[in-house]
Amino acid sequence: MTRTESVERAEEDDAELIRCSHDDPERFAGIFDRYIEQIHRYVARRLGTQAADDIAAETFLIAFRRRASYDLAQQLARPWLYGIATTLIARHRRSEERFLRALSRTGVDPLPEPMAEAVIDRVTAQQKDRLLAGALAGLSQGDRDVLLLVAWGDLSYEEVAEALGVPVGTVRSRLHRARKKTRAALGDDDPTRQDA
Amino acid sequence: MDEIKNFRSSTPVITRQAENTARARLLQAMREPAPAPPRRRMPRLAWRLALAASLAAAVGTGVALTNDGGGQQAFTHVASVQELGERAARAAVIDPSKTVPSPGKWLYVKETIAPLREEPAPAVDRDKRTTLELWNSVDGKQTALDDGKGKLVVHETGPGITAADLGEAPVTPERMLERIRAAIAEAPVPPGDDKSEEQRIVESISQLMSGQSLEPEVRAALFRALPMIQGVSIKQDAVDAAGRHGIAFAYTGRWERFEIILNSKDYTYLGSYGETVATRTYSPPSGTREIKAGTPVVWTAHLESKIVDKPGERP
Description:
By secondary structure, chain A is an all-alpha fold.
């Protein structure tokens, strides 16, 4: 069996799992096991691990509760779950922007506990992080959602549209605007360049 | 975009404790008896509005969420680690692809693994993959691999358990454990390594399954042996390094958790995953560093294995 085949086969099962969970609620644990890590990490990057512990748990409770209305034509539950998480994150918009502004101002990220290995990288990247944090704080919630769902959630434009319940055209224009603003803030002609 | 991707990329993964708490909350919601929810499919926009409304109501009053379980609990899939051992063992015996090769041949094995982030720390990088190719002699005594410069190096196999030894009668789960335990007792322990004996046994079984050409009966006996090891439980959904989902034997010890991941349909070996479950300080020669709970320390996916005539030969 090749890798791609089995990945596709495994992921096709989300809708099926949710369908089964209508009659057998425990099957929904499969959705939790598949996505808890990535949903948690996405929320933690935006609001810190402590808030993420709560919001990620809440995301799956809400998803479970709403499972009867899940559109079974959508094979992957990822966009749906990111959508729910994003709605929950939106309630913490002020905290998110406050954290970003604090980082931008002081160079110290108030989000707790980076992994030990990454500490050195973070010091060298600090100036860039500060500029970026300032730029992210200045984006509208909708633009920031799109940018971070693409950059951190690895969602396609179509999946972001699905997650946020907006047309794909809106995703494109929000992303364009968000990238333009962050690029301007970084004062960098080539935003895809990586630091050595 | 890369700069945004790197921004806060060091955010740690969810801790085991937080994951367990979240899972417990979800399970509680599942098990709460409740009137069956309406099955009506709402149009997309309608459910979005309903979702928004439910969010407004639900956040802050988390308990309210638990009363929508939708019926009685039922276990339709593999319910216990014993059942998993038994099912996997039966599948191993009837697997037609597992023919016993003749002596002198080699087993080519291809894996993809998450590489170490930065030696000597044990953490692996979840976002990177390395392909590993190796050749094991079918008697299980020798391993050959590329030294990175295109030269093949053959050496004796590490833990001293060979496929041939395990194949000697009687092939029972008890006997498998006995032999592996004896081999582990003889193997030198690297300094600073304080894995439990149980973890070593589970890891050895994983290595045997991924890298050795085992007779079907031996493979079956190993599957039946796993539930007999203290600390081994079932994990319903586990993911290997190639992103494939499967069902796993999961050993949880004081410091680490280790999973042997199997295809949930035919119980063939998919790969392994291990992570720390407690935060601890670790002292490599260069100084002290802390390894947080939830740090991945091994992640593999078994991609291919095939009998070939000599080491270095690819199927």
